[in-house]
UniProtKB/TrEMBL annotation, chain A:
Organism: Rhinolophus ferrumequinum
Function according to Swiss-Prot or TrEMBL: Displays thioredoxin reductase, glutaredoxin and glutathione reductase activities. Catalyzes disulfide bond isomerization. Promotes disulfide bond formation between GPX4 and various sperm proteins and may play a role in sperm maturation by promoting formation of sperm structural components.
NCBIfam families per the UniProt record, alphabetical: GRX_euk, TGR
Family designation: Belongs to the class-I pyridine nucleotide-disulfide oxidoreductase family.
Protein name: Thioredoxin reductase 3
Domain Glutaredoxin, residue spans: 49-110
UniProt-annotated stretches for the region Disordered: 1-20
From TrEMBL, chain B:
Cofactor comment: Binds 1 FAD per subunit.
Keywords, in A-Z order: Disulfide bond, FAD, Flavoprotein, NAD, NADP, Nucleotide-binding, Oxidoreductase, Redox-active center, Selenocysteine
Protein name, entry field: thioredoxin-disulfide reductase (NADPH)
Annotated Pyridine nucleotide-disulphide oxidoreductase dimerisation domain residues: 366-477
GO CC annotation: cytosol; mitochondrion
Organism: Rhinolophus ferrumequinum (Greater horseshoe bat)
Gene that produces this protein: TXNRD2
Length: 622, 494
């Protein structure tokens, strides 16, 4: 068992049982072995003195007594008291070439066994190594000042650690850059929700006439007014982040960070000046940036979501390339403020989301004037006219045949995906593995990379969700585990999210496809219905557009494993249901809960029709 | 009359009152194969307002009030719009007529829908005013005075309630209106005095203010009695900042019609004893509701009521003092006066009557939302109630003032956007109550009501990842306890 012991002269260390040791890991597979190795390196990394010993070994006892007599705190792992002690011993011998116990590490330096430790004590080497305590400039350096990085840095600082954040925004090919706070605040959630709100207000204006408000002319929209107001808000957020870092005594450096050797990072500022910093631990939170097509004219003439929210002129007639949620959200609000918008889609909408919902999102957009070009990809973008905006010719070809087409737009917005910022930060210098294809960083369930002192959070993680609140949660919990007394891991299951398309789509848990894949169709019951928000009635909007669906596991008490809603305020509706799913929501509980009348959310308390019944779910008109 | 009670009854189930609870009960029982009749009759209000099938919620409650609330919210949106780049005029006038007509047309379509649904389910519908003849027989009178006798095995009373008029104020009945009338007014009510501090009073005053009408609320004591009082104060504080005027600690003593048609109201300030006066176009009484039980001849059937409230005494099965006569909804003693509770109680009652299930209605943790200009959603216990039940030492309150993202650009004041979660102090800190003040509070609260039903703890709520950027995510980020005395203001993100 692993125990932490503060040395007291004359007393022998108690065999305290602190926590279970690597439960469930048997060193049979290479993967499990790698995991064990990583954890052992972590222990060596994290403890000033680490002793691998056996509780009955007299040599081990001598070593422990030595450190106790020196008054030095040390950690021990008794190999004879853990289930996988033999595997631990094997992996240790791979790391150190020493098969015996005790196996002693001081300040990450392999000391050896009992004799070597006593020799080092006599020669003074041991004392020297012990003094090397604050060898690093910082306890933690976070690379990337976005949602995850800032959350982690601030939490570590609250826990009394010396922390630095390196943040540097490489300008987009169009020259756009921004302040502290990362994607969400500057070029993501915040500005997109505000532009979405602008579009919703446009709809509210036309609704308002039906509710008795009197004005006649078609309201016109001014892009510059909106953008300036939004950028002002973002500016205030950038500022508040800086203030908050300062208040928590986190060192903020507006420089580009790049590993140069173990525990050492080079920071290059805007003027090209370089400074090196060292730290005991690192967190990579560099996030992602929009991907380009790699076709003629794309970097010269196209913009991405990095540029759109601060565009100094109205984009005009716009082609949005892609079918990611970024693509559909941008297309949605651009159309909502009155622009002519076309979306070019290579294959499916909202890949990874429930496809029935995704198609409904798309068809609502289509009904609201957004054109979709399905199964086409651009092959060339040409400038016809300069200007703000100018005129661009786009040539596209079919994904299914030789057919090509051309179109002229003022703006081409690429939203085909995002790439991790992991290839130019010197990870190869210290051996942090990335997925060569995607650039993503694989981590274990405590966000640790293959290099034990290097961690990663947020969008750079492989196989995790690219969402601000997830990054914040992961960052905060990581800091608490590293520097506090917490064990709680970030739970990536049942994370709710919402796509802010003109008709919002909120979901939590599994898509219907995924549920069928995991549980088999015959084990599921899907309840669904269209619903008509009360506010839509007088506004004269369609009564069979908003849609609610839950997916239940018949053989687990009809537990709700997927929650989907398409309707106004879907984000606000979904949040509470996510809490309920965390607490084991079942269909019965939904039925037993009283609705709040009249809301959209109440529809989930009265779901009666199953998909398998094939019954009609349409709402009757007047 | 002689044919009525001769062994077999006309119906398996007779429902008196075609509101939310009654209709739900009737439809469910018919679906389960019973022979069912519904009798419904709307006694015109003192102003002469009347309406169709569907009860309070559809005609003079939830539906029209939420629509008028929406009309008022759209007024706010028009003011927000220029901040978001929309070029709209500064002052946009509102046409009451147009709104009222649209709202009334929607309500009429719902009346029609209810009739069709009854027909589809083979429920016999009578537009008659019912009173008991004996414990199995009810006599119904049509508008024209024609009498019909109906007998039934089981009878459900779901007659609801109607607004109360003050009895001792001169001119109150002659010149005042109530929520029974406001939604059916053809013309704008103009400058309005709303008397009362119930949610009906505050909701009406809220949308009238939002529709640019000069609106004053006169209340004798506290707002929203029975709701969390801290939240209630914030609700009225927001209304005041939104333009509603408040006369607190005042009671009206006289309403007089002036020659020009305006109403002169005299009131008394209870603290100083001073009298004051003002003129209004409309006086709206929203001082409470009385159950519609007094014309039912309940004593003929032997059904007991509470002599003070006139509500019908019921047990957990919704049964009255007469075992085969039941009461649900607003007419029943001790029940929350809410549409969805009446609906569910009605459905469950029908299922029990048909031997379909034995489930009882659970009246705990009923979520609700007050649709004031800043909406207030809640579920579970108020802070006062939690402290009274568990003791202050055992209650932990997490709270936060927050700023909705949409308010920033619109430069709206968010001083009253506030969330409070009342928990047990003992880990894992079971959630006892949630209170949310902000936009879309109803939508936010619904899911959390489920969470509380599932026995959510503070820890579980905190482990739920937020949806960014929403207002609801602020609930999952509540960190500051009242006990700590720390500033509960959310600053920045993260």
């Amino acid at each position: 068992r692993l125990g932490s012991v503060r040395g007291v002269p004359g007393s022998s260390p108690p065999g305290r049982r602190a926590r279970p040791w690597f439960p469930g890991i048997s060193c049979t597979s290479a993967e499990a072995r790698e995991e064990l190795r990583r954890r052992l390196l972590g222990l060596i990394e994290d403890n000033r003195v680490m002793i691998f010993s056996k509780s009955y070994c007299p040599h081990s006892t001598r070593v422990k007594e030595l450190f106790s007599s020196l008054g030095v705190e040390y950690n021990i792992l008794e190999l004879d008291q853990v289930d996988d002690g033999a595997s631990v011993q094997e992996v240790l011998s791979e790391i150190t070439n020493q098969i015996t116990v005790p196996n002693v590490f001081v300040n990450k330096v392999h000391m050896g066994g009992c004799d070597r430790t006593f020799q080092a004590h006599q020669s003074g080497l041991l004392q020297k190594l012990l003094q090397k305590e604050s060898a690093y400039d910082y306890d933690l350096i976070v690379i990337g000042g976005g949602s995850g990085g800032l959350a982690c840095a601030q939490e570590a600082a609250i826990l009394g650690k010396k922390v630095m954040v390196l943040d540097f925004v490489v300008p987009s090919p169009q020259g756009t850059s921004w302040g502290l706070g990362g994607t969400c605040v500057n070029v993501g959630c915040v500005p997109k929700k505000l532009m979405h709100q602008a579009a919703l207000l446009g709809q509210a204006l036309s609704d308002s006439r039906k509710f008795g408000w009197e004005y006649n002319q078609q309201a016109k929209h001014n892009w510059e007014t909106m953008t300036e107001a939004i950028q002002n808000h973002i500016g205030s957020l950038n500022w508040s982040y800086r203030v908050s870092l300062r208040e928590k005594a986190v060192a903020y450096v507006n420089s580009y960070g790049e590993f140069v050797e173990h525990h050492k990072i080079k920071a290059t500022n805007r003027k090209g000046q370089e400074t090196c910093y060292t730290a005991a631990k690192f967190v990579i939170a560099t996030g992602e940036r929009p991907r380009y097509l790699g076709i003629q004219g794309d970097k010269e003439y196209c913009i991405t979501s990095d540029d759109l929210f601060s565009l100094p002129y109205c984009p005009g007639k716009t082609l949005v390339v892609g079918a990611s949620y970024v693509a559909l959200e941008c297309a949605g609000f651009l159309a909502g403020i009155g622009l002519d918008v076309t979306v070019m889609v290579r294959s499916v909408l909202l890949r990874g989301f429930d496809q029935e919902m995704a198609e409904k999102v798309g068809s609502y957009m289509e009904q609201h004037g957004i054109k979709f070009l399905r199964k086409f990809i651009p092959v060339m973008v040409q400038q016809l006219e300069k200007g703000l905006p100018g005129k661009l010719k786009v040539v596209a070809k079919s994904t299914e045949g030789p057919e090509t087409m051309e179109g002229v737009y003022n703006t081409v917005l690429l939203a085909i995906g995002r790439d991790s910022c992991t290839r130019k930060i010197g990870l190869e210098k210290i051996g942090v593995k990335i997925n060569e294809k995607t650039g993503k960083i694989p981590v274990n369930d405590v966000e640790q990379t293959n290099v034990p002192y290097v961690y990663a959070v947020g969008d750079v993680l492989e196989g995790k969700l690219e969402l601000t609140p997830v990054a914040i949660q992961a960052g905060k919990l990581l800091a608490r585990r590293l520097f506090g007394d917490h064990l709680e891991k970030c739970d990536y299951i049942n994370v709710p999210t919402t796509v802010f398309t003109p008709l919002e789509y909120g979901c939590c848990g599994l898509s219907e496809e995924k549920a069928i894949e995991v549980y088999k169709k015959e084990n599921l019951e899907v309840y669904h219905t269209f619903f008509w928000p009360l506010e839509w009635t007088v506004a004269g909007r369609d009564n069979n557009t908003c849609y609610a669906k839950i997916i239940c596991n018949k053989f687990n008490n009809n537990r709700v494993i997927g929650f989907h809603i398409l309707g106004p305020n879907a984000g606000e509706v979904t949040q509470g249901f996510a809490v309920a799913m965390k607490c084991g929501l079942t269909k019965q509980l939904l039925d037993d809960t009283i609705g709040i009348h009249p809301t959209c959310g109440e529809v989930f308390t009265t779901l009666e029709i199953t998909k398998s019944s094939g019954l009609d779910i349409s709402q009757k008109g007047c | 009359v002689e044919s009525a009670h001769s062994g077999r009854q006309d119906y398996d189930l007779l429902v008196i009152g075609g509101g939310s609870g009654g209709l739900a009960c009737a439809k469910e029982a018919a679906q389960l194969g019973k022979k069912v009749a519904v009798v419904d009759y709307v006694e015109p209000s003192p102003r002469g307002t009347r309406w169709g099938l569907g009860g309070t919620c559809v005609n003079v409650g939830c539906i029209p009030k939420k629509l008028m609330h929406q009309a008022a919210l759209l007024g706010d949106r028009i003011r927000d719009a220029p901040h978001y780049g929309w070029e709209v005029p500064q002052q946009v006038p509102h046409d009451w007529r147009k709104m009222a007509e649209a709202v009334q047309n929607h309500v009429k379509s719902l009346n029609w829908g209810h009739r069709v649904q009854l027909q589809d389910r083979k429920v016999k519908y009578f537009n008659i005013k019912a009173s008991f003849v004996n414990e199995h027989v009810v006599c119904g009178v049509t508008k024209g005075g024609k009498e019909t006798l109906l007998s039934a095995e089981h009878i459900v009373i779901a007659t609801g309630g109607r607004p109360r008029y003050p009895t001792n104020i001169e001119g109150a009945l002659e010149h005042g209106i109530t929520s029974d009338d406001i939604f059916w007014l053809k013309e704008s009510p103009g400058k309005t005095l709303v008397v009362g501090a119930s949610y009906v009073a505050l909701e009406c005053a809220g949308f009238l203010t939002g529709l640019s009408l000069d609106t004053t609320v006169m209340m004798r004591s506290i707002p929203l009695r029975g709701f969390d009082q801290q939240m209630s104060s914030l609700v009225t504080e927001h209304m005041a900042s939104h333009g509603t005027q408040f006369l607190r600690g005042c009671t009206p003593s006289r309403v007089k019609k002036l020659p020009d048609g305006q109403l002169q109201v005299t009131w008394k300030d209870l603290a100083s004893g001073r009298e004051d006066m003002g003129t209004f176009d409309t006086v709206l009484w929203a001082i409470g509701r009385v159950p519609e039980t007094r014309s039912l001849n309940l004593e003929k059937a032997g059904v007991n009521t509470n002599p003070n409230t006139h509500k019908i005494l019921v047990d957990a099965q919704e049964a009255t003092s007469v075992p085969h006569i039941y009461a649900i909804g607003d007419a029943a003693e001790g029940r929350p006066e809410l549409t969805p509770t009446a609906t569910m109680a009605g459905r469950l009652l029908a299922q029990r009557l048909c031997g379909q299930s034995s489930d009882l209605m659970d009246y705990d943790n009923v979520p609700t939302t007050v649709f004031t200009p800043l909406e207030y959603g809640c579920v579970g216990l108020s802070e006062e109630e939690a402290v009274a039940r568990h003791g202050e030492e055992h209650v932990e309150v997490y709270h936060a003032f927050y700023k909705p993202l949409e308010f920033t650009v619109a430069e709206r004041d968010s001083s009253q956007c506030y969330i409070k979660m009342v928990c047990l102090r003992e880990p894992p800190q079971l959630v006892l109550g949630l209170h949310f003040l902000g936009p879309n509070a109803g939508e936010v609260t619904q899911g959390f009501a489920l969470g509380i039903k599932c026995g959510a703890s503070y820890t579980q709520v905190m482990r739920t990842v937020g949806i960014h950027p929403t207002c609801a995510e602020e609930v999952a980020k509540l960190r500051i306890t009242k006990r700590s005395g720390l500033e509960p203001t959310v600053t920045g993100c993260g």
